[in-house]
Amino acid sequence: xxxxxxKHTEIAVKKQLGQNFLTDRNITRKIVRLSGAxxxxxxxxxxxxxxxxxxxxxxxxxxxxxxxxxxKLAAFIRTxxxxxxxxxxxxLKIDLEAVAGGRKLRILGNIPYSITSxxxxxxxxxxxxxxxxxxxxxxxxxxxxxxxxxxKEYGILAVQLQAFFEVSYGFKVGRKVFKPQPGVDSAVxxxxxxxxxxxxxxxxxxxxxxxxxxxRRKTLLNNLKESYNLDAVPAEVLKLRAEALTIxxxxxxxxxxxxxxxS
Length: 263
Ligand SMILES: C[S@@+](CC[C@H](N)C(=O)[O-])C[C@H]1O[C@@H](n2cnc3c(N)ncnc32)[C@H](O)[C@@H]1O
What we know:
- The chain is α/β, with parallel strands linked by helices.
- It has 2 domains: 3-193, Vaccinia Virus protein VP39 (Rossmann fold); 202-256, Helicase, Ruva Protein, domain 3 (Orthogonal Bundle), CATH 1.10.8.100.
- Helix content is 35%, strand content 23%.
- It is built from 11 helices and 13 strands.
- A 7-stranded mixed sheet has the order 6-5-4-7-8-11-9, sandwiched between helices.
- Helix 1 (25-35) packs across helix 2 (52-60).
- The protein starts with a strand and ends with a strand.
- Bound molecules: S-adenosylmethionine (SAM).
- Residues 17-22, 46-50, 52-53, 67-70, 73, 90-92, 110, 112, 115 line the site of S-adenosylmethionine.
- S-adenosylmethionine (SAM) is lined by residues 17-22, 46-50, 52-53, 67-70, 73, 90-92, 110, 112, 115.
- Residues 27-195 form the Ribosomal RNA adenine methylase transferase N-terminal domain.
């Protein structure tokens, strides 16, 4: 069992909570700078741990909210930073709308590897609650989020997120600056909800994207024909694979198709 001790607290590291703590102050400063955090903003940090990022955010914004699942770390943050609003809970279960309380959040977090996708999809569902998020995650996942068409990284994650967010790659963070050291490198990305998205049925779009990529090597025709009426879609488009389409082309295709009513 790996133990990490910081100031007055020692914890047995919980792998399932993705507890790899940042140890390099240059990196934490760089993340907070990239976030664009400003005083008076409504800030939410996901997973403060021992407060590596928290400490830097406080330099800019003296009071904000953190959500930490590990009771021992939540207690640590409460003692160390009494001015913060500490929510001891699972980020995936909190009511983000209630936390935002009508003021859009700026979100920061060095998020646990194991729940990166669930966190991203939760942010997607709650996109009206925040204006900007700066997230550190596994490098490979970051590359899949910012991927461009016709690359092997471009898939469901890129299309779902880029349809609703401006996404931007910040910088790479090597594994050596964490304790305990993970087996992979990390990267920081930012996501900003788009003001206008040309979709009347976001859930339908999400289902369509999953269908379009169902078997990557297959054409759009083969992946979509079971579930959609494709009569209005040009034949040359149906010969393509999903990975060839830009986000705008996904929007157009989605408008042209009609879901089949399956009996
Ligand atoms: C990668 S560590 C980052 C810790 C700290 N921010 C840092 O950079 O050193 C992830 C943190 O998220 C917490 N955590 C894990 N799962 C969580 C969840 N579902 N909700 C809230 N916090 C969670 C972990 O306990 C841990 O403190």
